[in-house]
Amino acid sequence: QKEVEQNSGPLSVPEGAIASLNCTYSDRGSQSFFWYRQYSGKSPELIMFIYSNGDKEDGRFTAQLNKASQYVSLLIRDSQPSDSATYLCAVKRSGNTGKLIFGQGTTLQVKP
Amino acid sequence: GAGVSQSPSNKVTEKGKDVELRCDPISGHTALYWYRQSLGQGLEFLIYFQGNSAPDKSGLPSDRFSAERTGGSVSTLTIQRTQQEDSAVYLCASSLWRVNTEAFFGQGTRLTVV
Question: Which of B41, B99, B101, B109 should be substituted to probe chain A, the one whose Cβ sees the most A Cβ atoms within 10 Å?
């Protein structure tokens, strides 16, 4: 079982729709959860992070965390063609064992 | 510097040669990560340095791979006797020590083994 799992997609949504990206993780010691966006040929860049159960909103983005279910998601409202990219879920444990582990990423395509 | 700096940006090497990839993290960042990304794939964890603690080498794929971090700053990833399957983009990232802080990535080194 991979430590962090994502559906590789592609996930295709029409412009203006809500895109829902999902991620599950296996290590219950995980403390922090990150969503990165990676455009083709570029390095990953952080969209947002979450470490408490519940929802966290930042503009058009909402991260959701459910530690009991070991599940984290990212919602993108009013999707734009510029949101087309690969979205990487990353998970970190605390302390000196806090290596950052990434899922394989979900490719999102937003069609005009 | 303002961001994570990696060098070289591109490296073409012959099979069997050794290569060294360099990462200069953001000043003050005690955590440093190396990842490998093959075409169309996710980020494969290689190694993690945190301050003066022993590095987590659990992701290194073989004993041909090694990394060091001198003075808690610059890191070098060395691949000995390169193979064609080593061709990938090698990404370095750094962060503060706190668990709830983001990692910032360098632009990566694209390694091609011919």
Answer: B99
Helix (H) or strand (E) holding B109: strand B109-113
Residues B20 and B77 sit within 8 Å (Cβ to Cβ): yes
Residues B58-94 pLDDT 10s: 999 999 999 999 887 999 999 999 999 999 999 999 9
Q: What are phi and psi of A95, to 5 degrees?
A: 70, -155
Q: Which chain A residue has its CA at the smallest distance from B54's CA?
A: A96
Q: Are B109 and B21 in contact (CB under 8 A)?
A: yes
Nearest to A49 among B42, B48, B102 (CB): B102
Is residue B46 left, alpha or beta, with left meaning phi > 0 and alpha meaning psi from -120 to 50?
Answer: alpha
Task: Average the pLDDT over B41-50 and give the result.
Answer: 93
Q: How far is B18 from chain A (nearest CA, A)?
A: 25
